[in-house]
Specification:
CATH topology of the largest domain: Rossmann fold
Structural class: alpha/beta
Number of helices: 11
Number of domains: 2
Distance between the termini: 35 Å
Strand order of the largest sheet: 6-5-4-7-10-13-14
Shape: globular
Radius of gyration: 20 Å
Strand content: 15-25%
Order of helices and strands: EEEHHHHHEHEHEHEEEHEEHEEEH
Bound molecules: 5-S-methyl-1-O-phosphono-5-thio-D-ribulose
Largest sheet: 7 strands, mixed
Length: 354
Amino acid sequence: MTPQLRTVDWVPAQASRRTPGDVVLIDQTRLPNEVVWLRTRDVRDIWTAIKTLQVRGAPAIGVTAAMGVVAAVQSRPGATADLIRAADEAAAYLATSRPTAVNLFWALDRMRRVAAGAAALAPDAFKDRLADEAVRIRDEDAAMCRAIGRHGAELLADGATVLTHCNAGSLATSEYGTALAPIYVAAEQGKRVKVYADETRPLLQGARLTAWELMEAGIDVTLICDNMAAHVMKTRGINAVLVGADRIAANGDTANKVGTYGVALLARAHGIPFYVLAPTSTFDLTLASGDLIPIEERAAEEITMGFGRRTAPLNVKTFSPAFDVTPAELIAAIVCEKGILRPPFPVALRNAAG
Ligand code: MRU
């Protein structure tokens, strides 16, 4: 996979109209063993794809949900007022799939607003208008990621070695990724960059996805288990930690894949700058701090029977948060499409969002 390959796309049945069409996704649960595409126009499949992480990563979830609204509406008969109601219902349904990544709610709100504003259109034109918006969300996300890559590459010298956690690459976005975008841009600029990828228990996004997409792109990547990060920071000359985000609160506190907070503490202990890279669609300035970010908890089986094999006693008690919150004071900079934001974050985030 090249960074330009599309993780999620809208494919219309006819070239002349946006609708009807299909949502086409890379099924990320099948990676790295096989590249399988999921093609559907059923909103229930799209809900399940988000819930089960066939598509995952905050921006990719938002884009997919926007397309899910179109899928739900496009085959409905009825007047435009009925279609607006159907779009609202679909958005409310898709919003129940995962709670932490704010991009999901951001994209669904945008689709709802567009639907409400298109009440004067005839039904077919209304459906095309919704599909146009979903594709625009996709294209804007790709452009934001590209800009994040350009800004973030300024932080990477030729020969830099970085550590990353989870997958915030092409697979997690429309294209390029957030945390991995600077690595792709630096490589295009002729810089040599090495990456250490945490495997990211329990679902192994680092091993299955980050290692795979970086290798496909010809980037020098070394896979490590999560519990090796401290040793690697001490012995392998890590120059920077780059991670993505699922939600950034107004004070800069950042929710990302569970384990990120620990990596940030380790980076601080080793004097390594810890950077968060995310588009402004990941900012949630309605929340004063990270304490207010809803943290998804996932099924016990993901940690007791990962990938189908029992690795813990039957009925053992478990706790499986999918995300944690890194306090703003551990973050050296937040890189968004507008540039590199430095503390104090409350002002910088407000200015970038506005
Ligand atoms: O549970 P996941 O795989 O959806 O978690 C993904 C992450 O935590 C990513 O780092 C985050 O969404 C940023 S993706 C650009």
